[in-house]
Design goal:
Length: about 200
Amino acid sequence: MHCARCGYPVAGGFEPGALPVCPACASGACPMDLIRSACVYDDASRASMLPFKHGGRIQYARFMSRGMIWALRDADISPDVIMPVPLAGRRLRHRGYNQATLLARPIARAMGVPMDLESVRRIYREDMGHKNARQRAENIRGVFEVVNPDKIRGKRILLVDDVMTTGATFYELYRVLHRSGASAVYGLTFCRVARTE
Ligand SMILES: [Zn+2]
C-alpha cells in the first residue's frame, strides 16, 4: 500500500475506512500537495541512479522519466509548470548538466506542460552527505531564491528531482514557492529513500 498523498510505501496497509495516508502526512509533517516516485532507492535503482547522476549516462533519463510518468497515473493533478529542482551554478558547471532537468524534459513533453528553469535560483552550499533529517533541513534552509515571483503566483508547480531522501529539498522549495503565491506544489522523483528508523 502507498500513502494517497505522498506515495510513501506503508507496510501492512491501512485501517479499512480510514483515510489512506502515512503518519507523516497525517501529522502535517509533509507540506507537499502530492508526491510520487517511480521506485524506492535500492540496489536496482542505484545501478541506474549513480551512473546517471555522476557518470555522465544521461541517456538513462529516457527510461527513468518513463517510470516517473507512470508513477503519476493515479494522481489527479494538472500542473501549470514543471520545475526541475535547481542546481547551484557552481555545481552545474562542475557536473555539466542538471540531472533533474534531464528527467523533467521528457515528462514536460509527455504532459504538454512548459518547464520553468529560471524562476528559482539555488545558492551553492557544501554537500549534505550523510546527515539526518534535521541536519538536512537546516542545511538547505534559505538556499532557494525566487527570482521571478510573477511566474510563480497562482501556479500549480510540479517539482522534479532524481531522488527524494528526507524530503528536505522539496519541503524547502514548497516553503519559498508557497510564500511567492504558488497555489499547489507537487513532487515527482525517480526514486525515494524508504525510512529505516
Ligand atoms: Zn504520506
